[in-house]
Structure formats: C-alpha cells, structure tokens
Design brief:
Chain lengths: ~350, ~400, ~350, ~400
C-alpha cells in the first residue's frame, strides 16, 4: 500500500478543479522552515505535524481526548505535543465522548479552538448527540460559531472487527452544520487538518487508520493548508472513479490497470462541502462514473454522489451510475471475511471494465 | 431593564424564619429546606431587593401574557412557563457578574434572561416567530439566548448545555479569567448520561461552574420517585463537589447560595451543585393540563408562592409594590405591541448562515444588577447577530 | 390533510408489488372482532390499537419510555395501555434514551419484546450508540436475536423547530441490522407496527407526528399486519413519484393535479428492507422518477433510492433522477421559514411538471 | 471443563489475614482493602478451592499462550489479557447459578468464560479468526460470549453491556425468575454516560443485577486520578445501592462478596456495586508496552499475584498444584492444536445472517461449578448458532 501511496503522489495530474488546489500559505512558516520545503512523512506524522504547527501558530488551539496526553494517543497522533505544550493544551480526558465533544463546543464558544479525538471513529456514536444537535446546529440557530475539530480514526482493513472499522462519515453528512473531511495522502492530511483547525465551524476529520503508517509522501513543512475541494489524481477521458480516504489508493491502483488516459480518478477530500462542480465536470466529460465507498452502501457518501450525478449530469451519461461499497453488514474481524466485504482494487477494476464496455 | 441599584446599607441577612420548616423527604409533598445558607451572606440593599421582586414579577407577567398569546393562537408551536419557580432563575442569575455566562437558561428560566438584560421585545418577537435578533425565527419558545449578554441559548436535549457550560468554564480556567459559567436544569435532567459526564468533568477538574438544579418534583408527568433513588444534591458528593439544598421559592436564599457557589468557583475550588426545591405549578407546557398532579399538593405550594411571599416582605420594608407591577406591565405592553408589529422573517433567508464565515465574536457582557458588583467597566466587542 | 388521507385510501390501485400487499392475518382476532371488520381511526389511534392488540396477543410485549405510563405518552400513543396492562408492561422511565434502548436490548435478549418510545425522534441521537452498535450489530455478530421496536415520533410541519422536527431515518438506514419503517396511513401504521413487534429484529418505527391526528382512515380491527414492502398508491405511466411518511400525502396531492394515469405514486412504507423490485419495476415502466424526502437532502433515503435507480434502471430512464428534499439546514421554527424548507405539494407538482416535459 | 466439585466439609471462612493491610487511598500505589466481607460467608470445599485455582491458572495459561500466538503473528488484530486480575472474573462467576447470565465478560474476564464452561477450542478458534460457533470469525479477541452458556458477548463501547444487563435483569424481575445478571467493567468505564443511566435504572428499580467493577488503576494510559474524583464503590450510594470494596487479588473474597450480592439481588433488594481493586500488570493490550506505568508499582503488586498466593495457600491445604497446572496445560495444548487445524471461515458467508428470521432461542444455562449449588437439573433448549 505504501507503494500505492507513492503511485498516488506520482500520479497527480492537472485535471478539472486542479487550479483550485495546492498550498494556500506558501510563505516561511512559524517554525522557520523555508517556504516550499518538504519532508517525507507518513500520513500519521503529517497529522501530528499539522497539530504541532497549528498549536504553535495559535495559542487558542488545544487538544483533548482519551490518552492523548503523555501517552500520545492510541495511534500516537499526538505524540510529543504534551511535552511541548503541557497539560492545559493537551488534555487527557475521562472516557466520555459526549463530554469530550460537548466541552469542546463550550470551549469553542468561549474562544478556544479545541481539536478533540475520539479514540476510534466507531465510538462517535456515544457522543453523537452533542455533535449533531449541539455543535452542528449552533451557528444556524444562534449565530454563534463553534470552531472545533473532531478527529476520527476510521476505517478497516486490519482485522479491527465490527467496532473498530467503521466509516461513519455519512451520518455526519446527513447532519446539517458539520463539515466533513477525509484525506487520502499525507500532504492532504496535514493541509486539510490545518485548514479544519482554522475553519470557524465544527469539522469532522476522518483519518483513515489503515493509511496511518502505510502511506508516505512529501509534506510541506511549516504552515500548510488545503482548500475543501476535490482533486483529480489521475486524468482520464472515458470513466471517472470517485473515491476518498483509503479507497482512493485502491482506485488509483485499479485505474493503472487500464491504458493511461482512459480512467480518471477524483479524490473527493471534502465530503461537506462536496465539490459538486468537480464531480460534475469530470463525469460530464467522461460520461461514465464509478463511485467507491468503504462505508456500508445504503445512504453512504457514494449514494449522495450518485444522486447528484444522476440528476445533474444525466444527459451526459453513457452508462449507469455504478457504485462499489461495503455491503450492509458490520465489518468482520477475520481477514478473509473482511476482504470479502471491503472493496478491493480487483473489484474496482472489474467494475470499471464493465462500465467501460457498457 | 433593571437599573443598577444604589448601594444602601441594608444587609438583610438570611434569617431562619424565611427557611420553611424542613422535611428531608423529597417533593412533591415535602416542603423544601434550606440546609446550607452560606455563613457570610452577601448584602442585598433595598434597591436590590426591589430589583429582585421586579424581575420575578417581570417573568411572571411575561409568561402570563405568553400563555394568553399562545391560547389566542398567536404563538406558533408551544409555550412553557416557570410559574412559581421565578425565585430560582432570578435569584441565581442575580448573583452573576457581567463577565459570567449562563449556559443555558432552561425551560423555566425566563427570569435569568431578564436579569441579564435581554431585550424583552426581542424575546417576544422570538416567541411569536417574528423576525428578531435572537433567533431570526429559526427557533421558538424557550430556545433562545442573547450572546451579547453572555447568554447561550438552550438546545432541547437534556442536559446538553450543562456539558457545554463545563467546557466554557474550562476555557475560563485555562485562561485564568475570573468568570464562572452557570447552568440550569430540572431534576429530570439529572438522569441522562450527559449529566454524569458533565458532573464528572466538572468535579474532577474543578471547573468554575455553578450548577443550578431546579427540583420541581416533576419531569413532564414523571415524579421524582420514578426518576431517581437519591436526590440530586446528595449525589454531588459522588463527583467530589458539594451539593446544597435551597428553598427554591425564596429568592434571597437562592441568591445567597449561588453567590457562595460563585465565590467558591472563583477561588478555584470547583463547582457546586445547588438543588433548588420547588414545585411545578402549571402543566409541562401550555398544552398540558397536568391532571396527573394532586390538586392538594398544588394548593399547599400555592401558599408558598415566591412572588406573593416576597411582595409581602418588601411591602413591609416600604417598597411600592404596585409601582413595581405597573412598571413591569407598561414595559410588557410596549414590548408586545412592538413585537406584534414586527413582520415574519423573510423566507428567502431560511437557509442562509449555516456556516460561520467570519472570525467568531466573543460573547458580550451581561447586566449584573446586584449592587455588590463594582461600577461596570466599559463594554468589550459586540456579539454576533444570530445566523449571520 | 385528512382529505388527502382519504384520497390516499381511495386511490389505492393495484400496481407493481400489489400482489404482495394486504393483511396477512385475516382470521378473527384476539379481541374477538370479526375478520374483515374495520373502524375509522386516526393514524395515532391506529398506533395505539396496534400496541393494544399485540400486547393482548403476546404477553412478552411491553412498552417503555418517558411518560408513556398513566400519562399515555407525550402524544397519547400509549393512552389506556397502563390501565389495561399495568406498570410492569407499560413502564415510565427516567429521561435516559440510552438506557431505554439498552435495557430494551437486554429485555429482548431475555425473551421479551419491548416497544420503546423516544419522546421525539430527534432525541434518538442521545441513545444512538445503543441502537447502532448494540442492537443493530447483535444478530450478525452473535446469532442472538433482538426483537424490539423503537417508536420515533418524527417529522415537521407544525413549528416544532430544530429539535422537534427531525426525520432521522437515513442514519438508521446507514447502520446495518436495523429495519426501518415509515407508514403514511392509519392502516399501515397499525399493520406495520404490529409486524414490527412480531419481527425478530430491532425495528425503527418512524411515526410522523404531523399525521397523528390529521390523517384518518379505515383500519382493520383485531390482528392486522402488513409486509415490509412498497405500495403503489396512484397508478401512472409517465412518471414515478417515490415518497413515504408525510410526503406521501403531498405526492398524492401533487399527482392529482395531472391527468389521471400519468403520474404514479409509490409509498415506500419500508426503508429497510427497501423494496427495490417495486421501485425499479415502476421506474422502468414510467422512465421518469421524482423522489421526495422530508429529511435533509444529503445522504437521505432519497439519495439511496436515486442511486439505486441510476444504476439499475438507467437504460429505462427518459430523464434525470430528480429529488426534492429539505435543504441541509435544521428545520426552522417560524411557520413561513419552515414552509420554505419542507417540500410542498406545489413544489412536488412543479418538479413533476418539469420532468414530464423533459 | 471443571468437574462439579464434591461437597466436602471445609468451610474456609475468609480470615482477616487474607485481607491485606488497608490504605484508603486509591490505586495505583495503594494496596486495596476488603471492607465488606459478608458476615455469612458461603462455604467453599477443598474441591471448590482447587477448582478456583484451576480456573485462574486456566485463564493465565490461556492468555500467555494467546500473547505468544499474537506475537507469532497467528492472531489477527489485537490481543488483550487480564494477567494479575484472574481472581476477579473467576471468583465472581463462580458465585453464579446456572440460570444466571453474564452480560458481559469484558476485556480482562477470560476466567468468567471458563467458569461458565465455554469450549476452549472454540475460544481459540475465535481469537485466531478461524471458523467457530461463537462468532463465525466475524468478531475477534475479547468480543465473544457463549449464549448456550448464558453468556452474552461484549461490544467495545464502554460500558454498553451494563445497560443491556440491567434490561436482562428487568426481564427476570418481571417474570419473577430467581436469576441475576452479572456485569463486568473496568473503573474507566464508569465515566461514560451509559454507566450512569444503567446505575440509575438498576438502583431505582432494584433490578437483580450484580455489578463488578474492576478497578485496576488504569484505563489504557489514564490513571484513576484523571478519571474521576471519587472511587466507584463510594459512588454507589448516589444510586441507592451498596458499594463494596474487595481485594481483587483474593479469589475467595471476590467470590464471597459476589455471592452476597447475588443473594441480595435474589431477595429483591436490588443491585450491589462491587469494586474489586487490583492492578493491571500488562499493557492495555499486547501491542502496549505500558512504559507509562511505574515499575516499582508493578513490582509491589507482583508480590500479590492472585495465583501465586492462592497456590501457596492450597499447597498448604494439600492440593496437588502441579497436577492442576498439568491438567490445564494438557487441555490448552489440545485446544490450540485443534484450533490451528481449523480452517478460516468461508468468505462466501460473510454477509449472511444479518437478520434473525426464526423465533429466538432462549439463552442456555451455564456451568455452575460451585458445590453450593444443588445438582444441576436437565438442560433446557439450546441457544442459537452465531449469525445463523
Ligand atoms: C434527552 C431528552 N429526552 C427527552 C426530552 C423531552 N423532555 C422535554 S422536557 C422533559 C421533562 C424535563 O423535566 P425536568 O428536567 O425535571 O425539567 P422541568 O420540566 O421540570 O423544568 C422531557 C422528558 C428532552 N428534552 N431531552
Ligand atoms: C465508549 C468508549 N470509548 C473509548 C473506548 C476505548 N477504550 C477501550 S478500553 C479503554 C480503557 C478501559 O479502561 P477500564 O474501563 O478501566 O478497563 P481496563 O482496560 O482497565 O480493564 C478505552 C478507553 C471504548 N472501548 N469505549
Ligand atoms: Mg422537573
Ligand atoms: Mg481499568
């Protein structure tokens, strides 16, 4: 998979929407690293780097969650932050997701910028109410901004089983007032997380656990933010594969099995706001679309993309709007079962082949 | 709305005779007992006391008008009132300084909004679904707060805003500010898990939060006997914080315990849970005839009406109670008239403002009418318009 | 609206899937009412009737929730049950949705059949974890059945504001292992609730508050169960309107504005399982589809229906897959604002007209 | 797995010397104290005591092998063990009758599965992701339970299964059955809101539930000082139920307090919260080297190992401890061999069984090896296959 990661980095080709991409802040950054400098980082390191850079830059930023302090978090995403910023800004909390989210809302209302971690994204269900009813609805109801980020280590692929493999993003998409981001590369993980921290709204940040240590890439040093838009990762004319998070890498791998220029791969990166223009522009050009979700199929993000395309790109479609997603069962533990359930590059390629032949 | 009271020597220490005969049993049925009057009671001038009365009368009068407007079909949705509980929001909010926040006044806490100085016309516009600065018609009934006055409006889910209040208090503590967050909720709201998580965070980290639990004996139709085994104040110890029972129909007692809880929080000693015992005198909302409540119980509590009692006391102390009522009524009439003349919000704007696009504006300072506060320093930056 | 209710009842026409409809249990019922007898009931009365009949029929059935006892529930859906069945089987609970749902799971595992009420569907977020992680995943993980029903008074249209108007069904659809029902008529409210109680799985039962007292209809007395399939309510050849719950009535009203036989209206009734065959059969025949959701648009039930149609009925489509739904904001309180946000018969008719002209 | 012990007169009343010197401070650091030995202690025969030892050794030996299999890469996902905590699940489950249910054994409670008689080979198959009757490979590590043995497996979300246990207990109460539900969780699991809701329902309605909180001083890396202000047992009073602190490293003490709690529940007096104090001796899971734990603390607790201590006692009483160990090892070797020879589940079946289509089968009866239970009556109907 790190090979796939490399492939993705190597394959970034200008396409629809590309003009809107890239680093917004290019000047020398808070930690003095020269503009334009990069370093190879894992996806996980990029997340830590974003937290560190933003915490240095803005003293209102604080981190809270279970075991995120001296221990550095279950996945070590906050490693080193406690030493640098101390117990006030890197807070271990009791096991209480509603309070983690709810006190973050309060801290945000009082002028801080909390970044809270749910140890596994699956546990967000225990704090769901604070997220959807308090954080999500606040600004529209009252005009009060809730600048906070909820970091959600999500996704499967490593025998995590039914409670450590979920991709809950569609729940958030169906809750007005929450932004939803899902990076696939280290540079995006950093840039989107930094941008989320600077955003004035509650942002659900889906970090894919299976990418944490398996994907490496060049990441800009110092300040680096990415806009909440899609990115064309592979350019093509005959079929658009829409993906995000871990699925993006499989989509790129699948696309590479076809002649160059046939299959386009679009990395959504942001699910709310959804870059409808980029999706429609690509599909209108290729005329065929395959949408890949790691989440359970029904009412997933991909359903929304499919509905969008089926409405607004209908007249340009040369074939059915196809989806590939996890079937509607919990994610199984035993690796063979898990592989049977999660989309694979093989299955993506097969679906692509079918569509191209339509 | 209430002018800053003049500092007059009129200490009015709480006297045992104002604490009614106690029964340790839980309401409904039991007459509450104030078991923790702070030893160093804060001073209330006669003007303060008049202000307290005026605020309670203001709440009662507003809510009576609200019920009428609702029954006339002018108020969409629902209407809730805190008839008989006025002493709690008024007494508690009166103990707050201008930088303190309330997060949030709940279903029976109209008086807290009045103490903070939220514009009455805006409140009525809000209730009527007219265009207004508090909610722009997006919210109704008790769901409002004026951020310009340091008040964050409630959500329905109980007691979510308590959790949020703990987070605000945490921010104050981290920034070493001398401020507290005060939160209100009913005794029924102690059952959801969110209550426990908030209590635990607050007690463990000694957050400067003042917790006012209004035990009015009922949660909708459910009596406390079907809600919990142990009254809220007794449960505070499980979180390492003091629990105080106060007569919720005694505005000065509520003021005194809240004042003490605030002082404690400002000292860095952490939260206090105040259980103000009272009785819900009306239905859950105006749609509810509360047939399930024993009329004898209501009758008994009617004799302890917080306004009637206080009015009698203040009349004895020389306050012109009729003038207070007249002032309140005049303001209310004007506000209702202005509100009724206000158009409905423009439907074209129904979906705007989902996202915050500008740098957030800090909460403003609330009115702090108690004479114990020094002359107010100048106002900081203004709070944002709702939904803009 | 009760006129619309009548219209719906009168307009039931045999169509695709109609063969699978109707009362499964037609024999004389537990309360001795003769087979085939009906009575006019409101949607709300039909719900109470279902509870009463099923509680008489099966002593394992019990009801629990806030104020559902002597008070009869916030909407009076359980009125009279406490008197008939007593405090053990009609239980008032503390305010604690997670415990209401979680203890229901436990009672179900121990052999009872709890029907629990969340006072307003919006509050389900506070018990979401027990629902999706414990109830929903149980059978697939362990083979243990969780026969329980979660009654969810849902929907807007009466100035309920952001916390009393929600339609959370898509969240459940995206959580494997939960059945999801959303009746639009009194007879279906009774028949689907009774069937839900007899089902061996956790069922989310979305009762639309705005229909409670505004829709009346003939309801079979005694035992009456309905299968979890869609029903063609109005037959037509040129356009299919897919709807459920309160929207069904608006769809029927809108369809009536066109010449008879042009617009078909399909009432989904069950969202999980989703009657894909009925949807596809209708759309393949009409070639045009409009999907109406009262819920917020993104990732709603309608998105799933749209995705389904765009994939599997693509070659039969004569026009784009259109949707009408609430925009992605909380539901406003002030009636004018609320009406601006919720779909109306006018807007449905307008969208239908556009599609027919495509 | 453990034969039904012969009823021998060997009362073995708990003696004060087995309760270690007490310090009222909270672990880590403090040696726990048993402050509530039931006055009428249940009798343990020598065979019972040997069974207790065998069960604890069985858990330890299994988990050591489990760690090895995990480190060899044969176990997918993760592995968790309860090294040093064996006395709690074994002692508590040993007090249960065959009709009682456990909902659920948690992350440190392998011993409870062994007491109930769950097939060891099936458990290992489950851990290895092989086809098995407990989970069909859909679940791994600690997520299993054998419904045929009256055990419902856990979910990850803490402490959700406590809430479920309260619901099961409610069903028992409503049907006037003489059964209890026993639930396990760690001290960290007392912070989520679900814990409070479950405690409130249980205490208020006096459900026949036995609540075993394993306070091992840590929740992942978080010490109790960052988890709560007041230890769990002291918080029980807030829910109208007794809280009992017991030495979690003393299997007979755990047995005795659980027995008393069960009796209390069966009498209709409601739940008891048992706080068993112990120390987590390993990392949170096998992936965690627990560098954050003070080695001196671990060293101190190592001297109080529940198995070593008990072994010494039983050796003195004439038990052939080496034979116990040999029996355990033999069974384990056979089970591991059988498990490793088992194929992976067929991927074709990965999505089946989402829905229950048949009439639910009641939970089966668990083994109840304590001699205090009368000879077991015949088995009722079997419980369902996982996912079928
Ligand atoms: C989480 C949640 N569940 C249910 C409700 C519905 N509800 C609104 S008010 C109320 C009763 C509240 O009782 P209490 O907290 O005692 O306040 P009171 O009305 O007596 O002032 C209930 C159950 C809610 N608001 N929030
Ligand atoms: C609701 C929830 N949040 C977070 C987690 C992640 N988690 C798994 S175990 C654990 C620590 C549990 O500590 P404790 O309850 O003391 O049990 P112990 O591991 O010490 O036996 C955490 C935080 C979880 N399982 N559930
Ligand atoms: Mg109350
Ligand atoms: Mg622990």
């Amino acid at each position: 998979m790190s090979a796939q990661g490399a492939e993705v980095r190597g394959a970034v080709v200008p396409g629809a929407g590309a003009a809107r991409q890239g680093t917004l802040v290019g000047a020398a950054s808070a930690d003095g690293s020269p503009a334009g400098a990069t370093r190879t980082m894992t996806y996980l390191q990029a997340i830590t780097d974003a937290l560190r850079v933003e915490m240095r830059r803005d003293e209102r930023v604080l981190v809270l969650g279970e075991d995120v302090g001296a221990f550095g978090g279950a996945f070590k995403a906050t490693e080193g932050l406690f030493d640098e910023f101390g117990a006030d800004r890197v807070q271990d909390t009791p096991i209480a997701e509603a309070a983690i989210i709810g006190t973050s809302v309060g801290a945000a209302l009082a002028g801080l910028r909390p970044v809270c971690e749910v140890q596994f994204a699956d546990f967000v269900a225990t704090g769901f109410d604070q997220l959807v009813n308090v954080a999500g609805k606040m600004h529209w109801r009252t005009g009060l901004a809730v600048p906070m980020v909820l970091r959600l280590p999500s996704g499967g692929g490593f025998a995590g089983g039914p409670f450590h493999s979920q991709n809950p993003e569609a729940w958030f998409m169906h809750a007005p007032g929450l932004k939803v981001l899902a990076p696939s590369t280290p540079a995006d993980a950093k840039g989107l997380l930094a941008a989320a921290i600077r955003d004035h709204n509650p942002v659900c940040f889906l970090e894919h656990k299976h990418l944490y240590r398996r994907v490496k890439g060049e990441v800009p040093l110092g300040e680096h933010v990415e806009p909440f838009v899609a990115r064309t990762v592979v350019a093509g004319d005959e079929l658009t594969i829409v993906a995000y998070g871990a699925m993006l890498h499989l989509a790129v791998e699948a696309a590479a099995r076809f002649e160059p220029g046939r299959v386009e791969v679009l990395d959504l990166r942001s699910l709310v706001p959804l870059d409808e223009d980029a999706i429609l522009a690509s599909v209108r050009r290729t005329g065929r679309v395959l949408i890949v979700d790691e989440a359970n199929e029904t009412c997933a993000a991909g359903a929304q993309v499919a509905a969008l395309v089926a409405d607004r790109a209908f007249s340009d479609l040369d074939g059915p709007v196809r989806r590939l997603a996890a079937p509607d069962v919990p994610i199984p533990f035993s690796p063979g079962l898990e592989e049977a359930v999660l989309p694979t590059a093989d299955r993506i390629a097969e679906a692509a082949r079918e569509l191209l032949a339509y | 709305m209430i002018g800053r009271a003049v500092l007059v020597e009129d200490p009015h220490p709480p006297t045992p005779d104002r604490a009614p005969d106690a029964a340790s049993e839980h309401p409904p049925g039991a007459v509450p007992r104030t078991d923790d009057r702070p030893s160093t009671a804060p001073r209330l001038t006669l003007a303060d006391r008049e202000a307290l009365l005026e605020l309670m009368v203001g709440m009662r009068t507003f809510e009576e008008r609200g019920v009428a407007l609702y029954k006339q079909g002018r108020t969409p949705g629902s209407f809730y009132d805190g008839h008989g509980q006025e002493a709690i929001p008024v007494g508690a909010a009166f103990a707050l300084g201008p930088d303190d926040v309330i997060c949030s006044p709940l279903i029976r806490d109209m008086g807290a909004h009045l103490v903070r100085g939220t514009d009455l016309t805006e409140i009525i516009r809000h209730h009527l679904g007219r265009d207004n600065r508090l909610s722009r018609g997006r919210e109704g009934n008790v769901h409002f707060g004026d951020p310009r006055k340091g008040v964050v409006g409630m959500v329905s889910m109980l007691p979510d805003m308590f959790v949020v209040a703990v987070g605000m208090a945490m921010a104050f503590r981290l920034r070493r500010e001398r401020r507290v967050a005060l939160t209100f909720f009913g005794e029924g709201a102690t059952s959801p898990g969110a209550w426990h998580e908030a209590m635990n965070f607050a007690g463990l980290r000694k957050e400067p939060v003042v917790i006012v639990c209004e035990n009015n004996g009922l949660a909708y139709s459910t009596p406390t006997s079907a809600q919990f085994a142990v009254p809220p104040a007794e449960r505070a110890a499980a979180y390492g914080m003091p629990g105080v029972v106060v007569d919720g129909n005694d505005v000065e007692a509520v003021f005194a315990v809240t004042h003490a809880a605030r002082e404690r929080a400002l000292r860095g000693d952490g939260p206090t849970l105040i259980e103000a015992r009272t009785m819900r005198m009306h239905g859950h909302g105006s749609h509810d005839d509360a047939r399930y409540v024993d009329p004898a119980l209501l009758e008994a509590w009617r004799g302890r009406d917080p306004i009637a009692t206080y009015e009698a006391t203040l009349r004895g102390a020389g306050v012109d109670v009729d003038a207070v009522r007249a002032r309140v009524l005049e303001r209310l009439d004007a506000a209702v008239e202005a509100a009724l003349a206000t158009p409905l919000p423009d439907p074209a704007g129904a979906t705007d403002g989902l996202w915050a696009t500008d740098e957030p504006v800090p909460l403003g300072r609330g009115d702090a009418p108690w004479s114990g506060f020094a002359p107010a320093p100048p106002e900081p930056a203004a709070a944002p318009e709702a939904g803009r």
